[in-house]
Amino acid sequence: MEKMNVNLAESMKHMNERLGVGTNFDVLYRVVEVGGKQACIYMIDGFCKDEMMQKLLQYFMDITADKLPADAHEMSKQLVPYGEVDLKDDWAEIEYAVMSGVVAMFIDGYDRCILIDARTYPARSVSEPEKDKVMRGSKDGFVETIVFNTALIRRRIRSPQLRMEMLKAGTSSQTDIVLCYMDDRVDKAFLEQIRNRINSLQVDALTLNQESLAECLYQRRWYNPFPKFKYSERPDTAAAQVLEGNIIILVDNSPSAMITPTSFFDVVEEADDYYFPPVTGTYLRLSRMLIAIITYFLTPTFLLLMEYPQWIPKGFEFIMVQDTVNIPLIWQLLLLELAVDGLKLAAVNTPNMLSTPLSVMAALVLGEFSVKSGWFNSEVMLYMAFVAVANYTQNSLEMGYALKFMRIINLILTAIFGVWGYIAGVAILVFSIVTNRTVSRQSYIYPLIPFNAKQLSHQLFRTRLPEARK
Fold first, then answer.
1. What is the pTM of this model?
2. pLDDT tens digits for the chain (470 residues)?
3. Is the C-alpha dihedral spanning 97, 98, 102, 106 positive or negative?
4. How far does Cα 269 stand from its chain's mean position?
5. Of 52, 328, 369, 437, which residue is 20 to 30 A from 271 by alpha carbon distance?
């Protein structure tokens, strides 16, 4: 740990070399006289508040020699008119603070640097997120600035037990990570486990923010597609999870919160379940679960019945493919699975002004003309259209893709092995869910396994809120 020098010229030489002053146009420094002594202030252009810095500079230059304290500690206490002030003498910590936007002031003869946290980050408004919309409830959402996100949670939880613990990871990126939890409700052993994992990360940078951190925190059974974390861009959802004793992980530059530990039932739960009365919330929750089950079974079951038409119940013969099948059904289903994702990617990259005409064109070409040309049968198009739309009933993209992968495996096995392949596909789904584990190494489908009737009832049915029972 290299300590700073009390000589201002030596300190300026070190900072100029380390920060690339002269090469980096946005690394600024200003030499001023404070109380008869030379001082130098370093800052990053765009990270500091101009009006605040102007007032501070004017105040420092007005300090006379008889008022200047003998050491940095007294200086920070008596003559720095700002709330967030710190003292550091380690070069690594000083450099990290400056690159984070903190203003550093060196005064000749002082053995510590005065750090003034007058930074501000470019940020968008805390408007409702596009993905996590609700029919009723709060309309604010997380942004890419971590301080704003912690403030949104504190606005909802005004308890002194709420903890916001700052960590960092990445040798080059030095990414800020906040562990948010209730000190009197969190599992202390699990909290220590998460803290140790983050502190022991040996990575150069969290290139993809939360996803990079998630893959570092959970390295076992990465091939299991079912999500190990729940992501939410809603502060009300994050605050509710904190009050339930869970840990919220906020990563700087990411507009969503990681919720852990997370089970299968936690992933399929949404804020709308609680913004409506218990009966309506229960209906929405059970409908979402039922639709998720249908999206998995619909196309494999259709393919199985087309191979064994004698199993079709009486009165449902109309589900049979009526037109000529030019391309095997399995290839039609697989091509449409791929086409649906292609449309999603195209929609993301399509400019807003072109989204409507291109959507109409895609509907005409892929819908009507693909059937008329003989590439696809209308029954296949109908079932895949339902699956594509029904996938959006799941708020979790990870859960939607996990069910998609399991569905494709079932389709392939059913096409090759018939009924035994269909059974094997369902077995793979059940095995993937049952053997999955949360980050805390607990059962992924608790309270189903191990069975807890009371907790299972709370997971399936929306009951009255705790405060309403009093």
1. 0.86
2. 688 888 999 999 999 999 999 899 999 999 999 988 999 999 998 888 778 888 888 888 888 888 888 888 889 888 888 888 999 999 999 999 999 889 999 999 999 999 998 888 877 888 888 778 888 888 889 998 899 999 999 999 999 999 999 999 888 888 999 999 999 999 999 999 999 999 988 888 887 788 888 888 887 777 888 998 999 999 999 999 999 999 999 999 889 999 999 888 888 888 888 888 889 989 989 999 999 999 999 999 999 999 999 888 888 888 888 878 888 999 999 998 998 888 787 777 777 766 666 666 666 666 666 777 778 888 888 898 899 888 888 888 889 999 999 999 999 999 999 999 999 999 999 999 999 988 888 889 988 888 888 888 888 887 765 555 55
3. positive
4. 16
5. 437
CA triplet 18, 24, 29: central angle to 5 degrees?
70
Q: Strands, E, within 125-185: which ranges?
A: 162-169, 175-182
Strand, coil or helix: 435:
coil
d(CA 157, CA 138): 15
d(CA 401, CA 317): 31
Neighbours of 330 (CB within 10 A): 17
Pairing type for strands 27-34 and 37-44 reads: antiparallel
Task: Please tell me the distance from the alpha carbon of residue 10 to that of residue 270, in angstroms, as a whole number.
Answer: 57
Q: How far is CA 40 from CA 14, 15, 55, 93, 445, in A?
A: 13, 10, 16, 17, 59
Which helix H or strand E contains 106, and what residues bound it? strand 103-107
Distance CA 222, CA 426 (A): 20
Q: How far apart are CA 58 and CA 115, in angstroms?
A: 17
Q: Which two tokens stand for residue 116?
A: 């003034």
